[in-house]
Amino acid sequence: MDERSYTVAELARYVGGEVLGEATLCISGLNRIEYAAPGELTFIHHIRYARFLPHTRATCILIPPQLEAVPREGQAFIRVADPYRAFVALMPLFVPNNEPPWGLRHPTALIDPSATVAPTAIVNAYCVVGARCVIEDRVILHPFVVLYEDVTVGEGSILHAGVVCYPRTVIGKRCLIHAGVVLGADGFGFWESHAGQLEKIPHVGNVVLEDEVELGANTTVDRSLAGSTRIGRGSKLDNLVHVAHNVTIDEHTAIAAQVGISGSVRLGKRNRIGGQVGMVGHITTGDDVIVEAKSGVSKSLSGPGRYFGIPAQEHYRALRQEAAVRQLPELLREIHQLRRQLDELRQYVALLEHTWRQHG
Amino acid sequence: MDERSYTVAELARYVGGEVLGEATLCISGLNRIEYAAPGELTFIHHIRYARFLPHTRATCILIPPQLEAVPREGQAFIRVADPYRAFVALMPLFVPNNEPPWGLRHPTALIDPSATVAPTAIVNAYCVVGARCVIEDRVILHPFVVLYEDVTVGEGSILHAGVVCYPRTVIGKRCLIHAGVVLGADGFGFWESHAGQLEKIPHVGNVVLEDEVELGANTTVDRSLAGSTRIGRGSKLDNLVHVAHNVTIDEHTAIAAQVGISGSVRLGKRNRIGGQVGMVGHITTGDDVIVEAKSGVSKSLSGPGRYFGIPAQEHYRALRQEAAVRQLPELLREIHQLRRQLDELRQYVALLEHTWRQHG
Amino acid sequence: MDERSYTVAELARYVGGEVLGEATLCISGLNRIEYAAPGELTFIHHIRYARFLPHTRATCILIPPQLEAVPREGQAFIRVADPYRAFVALMPLFVPNNEPPWGLRHPTALIDPSATVAPTAIVNAYCVVGARCVIEDRVILHPFVVLYEDVTVGEGSILHAGVVCYPRTVIGKRCLIHAGVVLGADGFGFWESHAGQLEKIPHVGNVVLEDEVELGANTTVDRSLAGSTRIGRGSKLDNLVHVAHNVTIDEHTAIAAQVGISGSVRLGKRNRIGGQVGMVGHITTGDDVIVEAKSGVSKSLSGPGRYFGIPAQEHYRALRQEAAVRQLPELLREIHQLRRQLDELRQYVALLEHTWRQHG
């Protein structure tokens, strides 16, 4: 796709590293160590991955300072303080970063006359922008983004193909919303009649994303009963996450894929929520709470702290319990043995007494 | 977004409540108690939330009859029998409820000439309506709805942006289908060859939603092998739910987010299925079954009843088991102690016998 | 929808079966046994479902060789070696299989001039095909498919409505991608600053699907840091599955709905992963590994083998542990009893000794 190539010496200079081996070798791409082909550069994140070194077909490898190794013929190493960071720093050299067509209004985009679109914003093919929407500078709407009425998208935010924002959604600055995300659908709230029928509770609130929020593909965030479902500044959600109505997520929190957060939950700052975790409604977490993958959180968690299990409890306690459960089958045997030995002893004592009384 | 405002006295009259404090204060919006700002009205659902009262910035609060409290200056209470219901009843006063443009056929909508669209139905921008589809009165298709061939959408149903209906899908009356829902994709059925290859089993059935069904954002319902995957009247499914081929869900059942229901399952009436529950294939549930969040249902459940766990069992039994597991680490200590004490006693008895024999 | 009908004799001849009862009855549709109506044909997969036979309203039933039964009046059986296979073989007779409009370029489809579209490929309404994309023969793009730049779709693949492919996605031949699938969104990778802020790690890799891969509705596959996230030939993923960055799935593996596979996992050949399973990052599975639904896999699994649990362990071990946990509440009672009996025995021995010493 792109024809750029660089010598090992050029790349070493770019990342401030030291060359081992042939500095004039030519590099035209990046890859992970298992998959790298000749002509590509890769990296060893940590000395414990040194075992991959003899097998890689990469022409150049970024290595950490501690690693003692000598490149094969036709291969070079670049020694740097942090090979992973250096690898990422090299990415822009290899990936074409075309300037987006700032100011584009694709002729097929339908923009309501009452909407305000900043001059540099990009509105791609087949976007639908509803009444009174506000789209700030350097926003990119990819094809088929649908903004219902009164939606605001802050400066520099990117909405990928097919994102849907229900009325009154507010997206902050520099947010990144992946394809298929749905913001602001009705909260799942019903009254139950005596006959068990479900009567809909209307939701007049909205969804607010603060600045620098990232949402993964096909994630859904429901709007609030009143007020806002809110995701705090710098928080990142992975794919297929469900955030229910009235939830508040504080800043710099990371939520892995397929997590489900029930209504009115409040998460603290810098939480780290593992994949497929579920949380019941109306609970809170403190700051710096870590919940391990697959947990089911049934009550509020204080922070800082690390939690695991269904129901979630302190991590060390969950591990101890898990270890105990693993011993259970042996425990059963042990208890049957105890029971037998106790019975034997009881009989023995009875026999002893009997003998004694006879002699007595 | 809208400029309507009302006095506390007007709102109290509307909900049949009694004013405490200044009846002439002006209210222009609704919010939840933690977030309400001056000029807004909120509510206290139950007397146990009275602790929020001193902290709210709301100008007006709907309170339950039992609550004894006096409004601050610049604040008013409205006492009503059911504050939550009253709050919801007030919503239409504050949210503009524009009459939809009945009869709209957006010029970009592609409607197959063989389709039948009722005069009052709305077909928004970029909808694609396939051959022989039938769209009844007051249906609203939001932008980018795709109906493949032979789809029927009943009177008054609303399909949000990007909903996709595969061929022969039938949607009843007054259904509400949120953005990103996919109805009628192929059931996940394969034959396995001796070499472990997967050979596709075609699915010629369809999906049928009865009247007043609601489906949350990005939920998927697969079509049946033959006949119909069916969701019963008045049932409500939350976001990101998976309903497999051949499933039948009876009426007035509620299913929370991220639940997965495997092939050929049959759910009874008025079931309440918690978030992230999974069900294996080919099982049934009775009427009025409750399954708690995160459960894994591996066999049929009789109703009425409440179930929990992986695998799901009667709720009281699951709780008892959970409590027992929590005691396990102590139990281990207890058993080691028992073992030691038993050994000591055994030695003691041996010593006793030895002493006795010597004396005997 | 279609008017074709056949006599029982014709259908029996088609599947090589033997007619029991009236061979001249007329059949115009297929259905499952619980739902079949008069005029429809159904099947009994196995002799253990014979209990459904007296209740079905179907006019014709495919039955297995072992089943001894006599059709009612107005009903016929067709005895065949494998009724399920025979049922599926009959499907094409009843379902219209219209020839697709090979070569269609819908006038609303936006195809970049630098893209290559094979003559027989179908590009439906409102598709967006980016720069340098390659679409091979007999590919079908349903409405609203979005291909970003440099996407390749192999011969005979079908992309349903609303599928989104990020740049550089490669789809093999004869793949089937259901509606709402997102391929190639950013991997969920961040650096954490000392203050707990999350700094984005760019991902310059892509997603590669080999031939005959099938992906269910709203499934998401993220692109790799560098190199490719790869799904092997003939593998099938159900709805709402999450495949993270850098994952490699080998050939002929089946993954049920709502499974989540974390970053850099490598799955072997012919794995069978049950619904809602989660896997932590950087682990591997061998060939022919089966993971039961709901499991949480926290370390690598060797194959062939069957695993279950949170954390996943050998299936037999997990079952033994589960059985032990179910006995726990009784175990608690048992231990209390042991404790009491031991205390009683200890007291009894003390009393015995006391008596003996008095007599001694």
**Low-confidence runs of chain A (pLDDT<50, min 5 residues)?**
none
Helix proportion of chain A: 10-25%
Neighbour order of strands in the largest sheet of chain A? 10-13-16-19-24-27-30-33-35-37-38
- Quaternary structure classification: homotrimer
- Rg of chain A from C-alpha positions? 30 Å
Biggest interface found: A-B, 67 and 68 residues
Helix count of chain A, per DSSP?
3
How would you describe what is shown here?
- Three copies of one chain form a homotrimer.
- Chain A is α/β, with parallel strands linked by helices and 360 residues long.
- In chain A, the strands form six sheets. In chain A, strands 10-13-16-19-24-27-30-33-35-37-38 form an eleven-stranded mixed beta sheet, covered by helices on one side. A ten-stranded parallel beta sheet of chain A has the order 8-11-14-17-20-25-28-31-34-36, with no helix packed on it. Chain A has an eight-stranded parallel beta sheet with strand order 9-12-15-18-23-26-29-32, with no helix packed on it.
- Chains B and C meet through helix 3 and helix 4 of B and helix 2, helix 3 and helix 4 of C.
Compact summary:
3 copies of one chain form a homotrimer. Helix content of chain A is 18%, strand content 27%. The first copy, chain A, is an alpha/beta fold and 360 residues long.
